[in-house]
Amino acid sequence: MYDAGFPSDVSGLQRARGELRVRVIERGGASVLDRLFQAGCLKVRFPRPEIFGWCDAVTLNTSGGIAGGDRLSGVFEIAAGARAAIASQAAERYYRAPASGGPALVRMRVAVGEDAAAEWMPQETILFDGCAIDRHLDVELSESSGFVGVEVLVFGRAAMGERMRSGQIRDAIRVRRAGRLIWQDAVRLDGDIDALLRRLAVANGAGAMASLVHVAPEAERRVDAVRAALDSMPAESGVSGWDGMLVARMLASGAEPLRKAVTAALGVLRQGRPLPRVWLC
User: Fold this and answer.
1) Radius of gyration of the chain measured on its C-alpha atoms
2) Quick check: 24 and 63 in contact, CB under 8 A?
3) How many whole angstroms separate alpha carbon 1 and alpha carbon 225?
4) For residues 156 and 129, is the Cβ–Cβ distance under 8 A?
5) CA angle 173-176-182, nearest 5°?
6) Where is 39: in which H helix or E strand?
7) Of 238, 244, 245, 182, which is closest to residue 210 (Cα–Cα)?
8) End-to-end C-alpha distance for the chain, whole angstroms
9) Residue 237 near residue 210 (C-beta atoms within 8 A)
10) Which residues sit opposite 171 in a β-bridge?
11) Any residues with CB less than 8 A from the CB of 155 and at least 6 apart, and which?
């Protein structure tokens, strides 16, 4: 990892590369692995599913974190009738990047077939002061498929008193249904991010934020239940529903209260199914 106190030739620093390709199919009412390709620092494991009919996938980054110049990509295909919940083993850390090293590039794609369902539930993204990140998630749905996705951003290591005085963050999520773009969300923060987050119209001083999107025929009918679950949580939140979609936003002082809010909302949308074991560690 680059440290200003120990100058290095940035062009010669080792960069992490990782690639995943996963396909899940339905077979006899179960959701099973059909194809798997993994290379570099990205791996995926498949713990025993707790609910029949679902495939649980847990991603791992063996590099221990993401630094400027790293390149990670993944494709998850959930075929017709299959169901898969995709989570990360732990929170992902984005380390401080040298000014001339370029951002970490992360490209993920989730494709969900007819009458299939996917849940995208990585744990928190912890952004170190001075990090540089360019991350995209593209979700492609059919008319009859369902999706739940959550992204959690934690700005700085609060336990160490860190505030983000510099950084470059590009984080975008796009959801398409039958080829039509139905939702696009983008976060773009540069420079003194701590000062930006203190603005009332940005985050009002919050140290962590989360976005949750649910696409399904019944999504709008769950708005009141999600709002009720979030009312007692230690986070500021808002929930909206339209066009077969539910979107929730959450702000909190740090990772712990925000996780409680996200867990409450997921509990409603997952209709009593337990969270992946890695979320409970």
Assistant:
1) 19
2) no
3) 45
4) yes
5) 85
6) strand 30-40
7) 238
8) 27
9) no
10) 135, 187
11) 127, 163, 164, 193, 194, 197, 207, 208
Cα distance between residue 115 and residue 146, in whole Å: 8
CB 138 within 8 A of CB 184: no
CA-to-CA dists, residue 131 to 64, 99, 124, angstroms? 15, 9, 15
Q: Identify residue 271 by its one-letter amino acid code.
A: Q
User: Which tokens belong to 231?
Assistant: 């009312």
Handedness of CA 201, 212, 42, 157 (dihedral sign): positive
> Is-contact 51 273, C-beta < 8 A?
yes
Give CA–CA dist 158/202, Å, rounded: 19
pLDDT computed for residue 50 by the predictor: 86
Which residues, listed in sequence order, are joined to residue 154 by a DSSP beta bridge?
126, 208
Q: What is the pLDDT of residue 11?
A: 52
Q: Which two tokens stand for residue 170?
A: 């590009």
SS (H, E, C) the chain: CCECCECCCHHHCCCCEEEEEEEEEEECCEEEEEEEEEEECEEEECCCCCCCCCEEEEEEECCCCECCCCEEEEEEEECCCCEEEEEECCCEEECECCCCCCCEEEEEEEEECCCCEEEEECCCEEECCCEEEEEEEEEEECCCCEEEEEEEEEECCHHHCCCCCCCEEEEEEEEEECCEEEEEEEEEEECCHHHHHCCCCCCCCCCEEEEEEEECCCHHHHHHHHHHHHHCCCCEEEEEEECCEEEEEEEECCHHHHHHHHHHHHHHHCCCCCCCHHHHC
Nearest to 167 by CA among 197, 142, 143: 197
Which regions of the chain are under pLDDT 50?
A: 1-8
What integer pLDDT is reported at residue 233 of this predicted model? 95
Under a CB-based contact definition with an 8 Å cutoff, are residues 132 and 161 in contact? no
